[in-house]
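Subject: design request, 367 residues
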């Protein structure tokens, strides 16, 4: 038993060892994308300040985003609408999906951000007009760029109430479409705090080498020991910030993903906060553009950095080849947690069995 337990522990250690590689994509001398305050103001004024899930405000925002796709000539992902409705009864939301098609292959890259807002946020600029502005800018920047894969742009509804939109979208995909996804990129809560992070997952993460050592000061999210992932989590799945957005819907279905976000993961020994000197924007009335720019004047520049790193990566000469040739791999993020649970359960059963056996033997000896 001890021998097999040691083998198991050694295997789990290998699963969480970071993958090291050199960077492939460098920043262009002149940034392609320049998001400005007016772009965010337009979304808030026309798309709606309050975009709480399942409300008319969320639907108003969805229609604004659908019109953006229509103006750029994007194709429908399915059916005859950019809106993919889900939910039931009064709780109905919608994803907004458009496709830039390629004539070269049937491979897919997904660029997504949730557009709904938290009920306590004033205008939800950090979470998540920042991500929405990045996807909108990429839609415009890539419209005339010839790419060897389809680009699916998606704005997820009802993320703040449990990632409902991304879960619905992934579950609706056929096995063939899922197999053709090269990478799902997610943008959520960017620009606030000292650091901008990317998180590529602990496994199925070979693609993170495409983003390492980039010139935009966007860094790999620190990977804490698995015990810290589980600390405070209501379930035995991961509970850390790197998997608390729509990328989780892809990771849990063995689809390669990367998510971008900002904050501070180094100021505290365990957990995550907005910044070392401030922690009062996320999901509060302070999540508005005036307050954010006062406290974080580099907010829009950080958003532009993420947008341009994404553009540089997707248009690089080696992105498609690297992703096509990447080993399929096995998603062990959740499987490995289940192994731990099973092993702990088996060890517990062994001790219970031994205890009961001893009790029975003592009772028989007395008789």
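Subject: RE: design request

Done. Sequence follows.
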């Amino acid at each position: 038993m001890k021998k097999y337990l040691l083998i198991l522990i050694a295997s789990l250690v290998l699963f969480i060892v970071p993958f090291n590689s050199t960077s492939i994509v460098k920043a262009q001398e002149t940034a392609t994308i320049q998001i400005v305050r007016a772009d965010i103001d337009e979304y808030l004024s026309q798309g709606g300040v309050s975009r709480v899930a399942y409300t008319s405000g969320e639907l108003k925002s969805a229609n604004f985003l659908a019109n953006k796709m229509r103006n750029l000539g994007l194709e429908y992902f399915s059916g005859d609408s950019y809106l993919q409705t889900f939910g039931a009864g009064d709780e109905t939301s919608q994803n907004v999906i458009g496709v830039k098609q390629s004539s070269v292959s049937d491979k897919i890259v997904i660029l997504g951000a949730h557009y709904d807002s938290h009920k306590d946020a004033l205008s939800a600029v950090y979470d998540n007009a920042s991500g929405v502005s990045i996807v909108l800018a990429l839609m415009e920047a890539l419209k005339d760029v010839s790419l060897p894969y389809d680009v699916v742009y998606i704005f997820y509804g009802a993320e703040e109430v449990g990632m409902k939109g991304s879960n619905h979208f992934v579950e609706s995909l056929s096995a063939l479409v899922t197999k053709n996804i090269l990478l799902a990129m997610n943008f959520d809560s960017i620009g606030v705090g000292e650091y901008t992070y990317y998180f590529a997952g602990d496994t199925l993460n070979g693609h993170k080498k495409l983003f390492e050592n980039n010139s935009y000061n966007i860094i790999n999210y620190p990977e804490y020991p698995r015990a810290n992932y589980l600390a405070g989590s209501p379930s035995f799945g991961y509970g850390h910030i790197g998997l608390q957005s729509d990328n989780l819907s892809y990771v849990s279905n063995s689809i390669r993903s990367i998510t971008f976000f900002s904050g501070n993961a180094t100021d505290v020994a365990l957990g995550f906060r907005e910044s070392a000197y401030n922690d009062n924007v996320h999901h509060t009335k302070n999540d508005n553009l005036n307050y954010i720019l006062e406290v974080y004047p580099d907010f829009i520049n950080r958003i532009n950095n993420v947008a341009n790193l994404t553009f540089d990566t997707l248009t690089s000469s080696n992105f498609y080849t690297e992703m096509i040739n990447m080993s399929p791999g096995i998603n062990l993020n959740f499987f490995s947690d289940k192994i731990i649970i099973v092993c702990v359960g088996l060890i517990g059963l062994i001790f219970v069995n031994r205890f009961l056996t001893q009790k029975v033997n003592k009772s028989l000896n007395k008789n």
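The chain is about 40% helix and 15% strand.
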